[in-house]
Amino acid sequence: MIAMLLQASLCLASCTPEKRAKNTRKEWSALTKPERLDYISSVLCLQRLPSLLPSVPGSKSRFDDFAATHINLTLSIHLDGLFLPWHRNFVWLYEKALREECGFTGSQPYWNWPLWASNLSDSPLFDGSDTSLSGDGASLADPQNYTLGPGATLPHGTGGGCVLDGPFVNHTMNLGPFEYALAFEGILPSNWSAYNPHCLIRDLNNYISTRYQNQTAVDNLLDSGDIVEFQERLNGVGTNLGVHGGGHFALGLGLQDFFASPLDPAFYLHHGAIDWVWWLWQNGGNGTGEENERVLALNGTDRIFNPPGSDEVTLSMVANWGILGAEKMVGEVMRVDAGEFCYGYE
Ligand SMILES: *[C@@H]1O[C@H](CO)[C@@H](O)[C@H](O)[C@H]1NC(C)=O
Ligand SMILES: *[C@@H]1O[C@H](CO)[C@@H](O)[C@H](O)[C@H]1NC(C)=O
Ligand SMILES: *[C@@H]1O[C@H](CO)[C@@H](O)[C@H](O)[C@H]1NC(C)=O
Ligand SMILES: *[C@@H]1O[C@H](CO)[C@@H](O)[C@H](O)[C@H]1NC(C)=O
Ligand SMILES: *[C@@H]1O[C@H](CO)[C@@H](O)[C@H](O)[C@H]1NC(C)=O
Ligand SMILES: *[C@@H]1O[C@H](CO)[C@@H](O)[C@H](O)[C@H]1NC(C)=O
Ligand SMILES: *[C@@H]1O[C@H](CO)[C@@H](O)[C@H](O)[C@H]1NC(C)=O
Ligand SMILES: *[C@@H]1O[C@H](CO)[C@@H](O)[C@H](O)[C@H]1NC(C)=O
Ligand SMILES: [Cu+2]
């Protein structure tokens, strides 16, 4: 009943095919060089605009406001039922800020992982050129394996230090970092909002991207029979990172940070791709539009790891994005062509 009401109130008709065609999100390599430069200069602009979050000393720009909001809500928006809907609107709000505050004229690009899984530094996204989002970090003298849990480690990549080239070479991460274990302990440190400037780090890791982000991994994900399976394959189990964890780990400690990962502009292309595969999967079921139950499928609560006692996510649950945008019902963000959204993917 609620689903029907939501569908009716979403007014699909206002997102016409013409409007939607003008807002097509593409893989980074499918953008022309001027389009890539337009995106990059809009992100640099957002990094220069003053923060609107005076209560967070470490948030120094509008770009940082997005990471600060993500940090604050981390324990309710990951590895649970809110993860997909929350991040869909988060990426859309970022795209909106790039447009409305920084004159961006394109659409939010994404990172099609399998294209570059065997050689990340070969990707136009991470090749370190002026039309990339910067490349690898400096290589470390004594790189450590990444620890996922007791006895579970993964090898480091080729960098690990400060980013060496490209447009974000001078970008400063102003918040964090946060220990990996904090998310598992369910702790948001009381000093989360502190100012702690440090360089943008990257550690391109072909070992991880080859294993978790290849075409087979994406095909398996899209082949998921229901939302429970889709979320499991997305996030992986144990040392299987899934394509979501794979993208975070393949870029090093900056992106591995559960809380502060949006401080690296690559976050938004990774999550653009998460949104893309979710929408592909949502449309892969039987029937189309309102008849496709995948479009409205949810599973989990509003707390990391779905602990007993936390609230089951429903279409009528109200989610919030802090100062970034208005509260929305989960049911308002399930489609990319309804509600406030009118975009597509190619
Ligand atoms: C990745 O691509 C670059 C540029 O084409 C090349 O120099 C490098 O050897 C490649 N690395 C691997 C591991 O294939
Ligand atoms: C790092 O992991 C590799 C296997 O992935 C293992 O052979 C090596 O011993 C580990 N190194 C350390 C310092 O733990
Ligand atoms: C980074 O900062 C250095 C030193 O201020 C400057 O010479 C260089 O042009 C800057 N690079 C970019 C891409 O902004
Ligand atoms: C927050 O406090 C912890 C524990 O005292 C410390 O390790 C960390 O560096 C602090 N973080 C910031 C951003 O100041
Ligand atoms: C490709 O991904 C699948 C699923 O993650 C994995 O089982 C397989 O080993 C990967 N292939 C390679 C060459 O690593
Ligand atoms: C579509 O419906 C058929 C018949 O009910 C079923 O066997 C199949 O698994 C469904 N496919 C998807 C992707 O849900
Ligand atoms: C979510 O999936 C789990 C595992 O299949 C199931 O036990 C639970 O009932 C599901 N929750 C909802 C609300 O469907
Ligand atoms: C952090 O989240 C809490 C609870 O949702 C909210 O009351 C508070 O305003 C948020 N702070 C920021 C800086 O977003
Ligand atoms: Cu996140």
Automatic annotation (TrEMBL):
<dbReference type="GO" id="GO:0046872">
    <property type="term" value="F:metal ion binding"/>
</dbReference>
<dbReference type="Pfam" id="PF00264">
    <property type="entry name" value="Tyrosinase"/>
</dbReference>
<dbReference type="InterPro" id="IPR002227">
    <property type="entry name" value="Tyrosinase_Cu-bd"/>
</dbReference>
<protein>
    <submittedName>
        <fullName>Related to monophenol monooxygenase (Tyrosinase)</fullName>
    </submittedName>
</protein>
<dbReference type="InterPro" id="IPR008922">
    <property type="entry name" value="Di-copper_centre_dom_sf"/>
</dbReference>
<keyword id="KW-0503">Monooxygenase</keyword>
<feature type="domain" description="Tyrosinase copper-binding">
    <location>
        <begin position="78"/>
        <end position="95"/>
    </location>
</feature>
<keyword id="KW-0560">Oxidoreductase</keyword>
<dbReference type="InterPro" id="IPR050316">
    <property type="entry name" value="Tyrosinase/Hemocyanin"/>
</dbReference>
<keyword id="KW-0732">Signal</keyword>
<feature type="domain" description="Tyrosinase copper-binding">
    <location>
        <begin position="264"/>
        <end position="275"/>
    </location>
</feature>
<dbReference type="GO" id="GO:0004497">
    <property type="term" value="F:monooxygenase activity"/>
</dbReference>
<feature type="signal peptide">
    <location>
        <begin position="1"/>
        <end position="21"/>
    </location>
</feature>
<keyword id="KW-0479">Metal-binding</keyword>
